[in-house]
Amino acid sequence: MVAPVEGPVLILGAAGRLGRALARVYPRAVLTGHDLEITDGAAVREFVAVLRPSLVYNCAALTDVDACEEDPARAMAVNGEGAGHVARACARVGAVLVHLSTDYVFGGAKDGYLESDGPDPVNAYGRSKALGEARVREAGGDWRIVRTSRLFGPGENDFASQMRTRSLVKPVVPVIDDEWSRFTYLPELAGRLPGVAAAPPGVYHLANEGAVSWYGFARELIPNAAPVTVGQCRRRAPRPRCASLRNTKLPPMRHWREALSDYVRLVAGEA
Length: 271
Ligand SMILES: NC(=O)c1ccc[n+]([C@@H]2O[C@H](COP(=O)([O-])OP(=O)(O)OC[C@H]3O[C@@H](n4cnc5c(N)ncnc54)[C@H](OP(=O)(O)O)[C@@H]3O)[C@@H](O)[C@H]2O)c1
Known about the structure:
Blueprint: E1 9-12, H1 17-25, E2 30-32, H2 41-51, E3 55-58, H3 65-70, H4 72-93, E4 96-102, H5 124-139, E5 142-148, E6 151-152, H6 159-169, E7 173-176, E8 180-182, E9 184-185, H7 186-197, E10 202-205, E11 211-213, H8 214-218, E12 225-228, H9 256-270
Parallel strand pairs: 1-2, 1-3, 3-4, 4-5, 5-10, 6-9, 7-12
Antiparallel strand pairs: 8-11
Helix pairs in contact: 1-7, 2-4, 4-5
NADP nicotinamide-adenine-dinucleotide phosphate binds near residues 15, 39, 61, 129 and 151.
């Protein structure tokens, strides 16, 4: 049960993975996608000024890591300056802003990152999301930044569904075994975000407990995963080897294996 919010709740990027999961938590929320282009500062300011939301979730982002590497200017415009437009618009009307960020603001040089750790990104996506975090802080409003990682959930075009599809059409599915992070079950994350909105301003980490490699996760899901190294794969953008988010401020989420069991039960029911 979500505590009632007095004014409208606005979800930006509502057609995306997390946006759709959040829309189920807030069935009366105002939902926007590209009809509210977050790179258009004047449009964002006007929309928010007219709606006067109490609470805004910014799930709008360019999340294709390799596409960001290919067009870093676009990544900066959306994930960086776009987040700033949203944050300033929220600050002007006194709305609480919950802005979504990522483990990829970190480079992987540390064994587990705290909420207080400063960004050291290794790719254009991470740099653009780090700029977004900076713009949100600078706006000076009532903000929370939620860093999360490796989202998966039923009905999504995500790593889990890609693995299931590949497993059906290929005898062996090569999966990277030397990059670790925390996976995060979308329905669980969406259910936890109202609690973050009600928490004091600041930076929060939310992901299922337990760091695991892509392969370690995939082998629990499909029978024909085979481990490979990063060096064996061709990808445009470098990734952090291990950017595990440590949550020291909120009650922990479940272990990823428990969340994956729920996921498997749900998708088995869909088949
Ligand atoms: N997915 C992950 O594993 C992951 C991990 C860590 C953090 N995060 C963060 O979590 C948040 C939500 O991620 P997600 O996976 O739900 O992303 P997603 O599925 O890619 O959804 C993002 C949404 O934003 C929209 N969008 C893109 N550019 C926009 C713009 N300029 N103006 C308005 N809307 C725009 C997209 O529309 P189009 O698709 O039509 O362009 C899409 O509907 C993001 O901040 C992301 O950085 C995600």
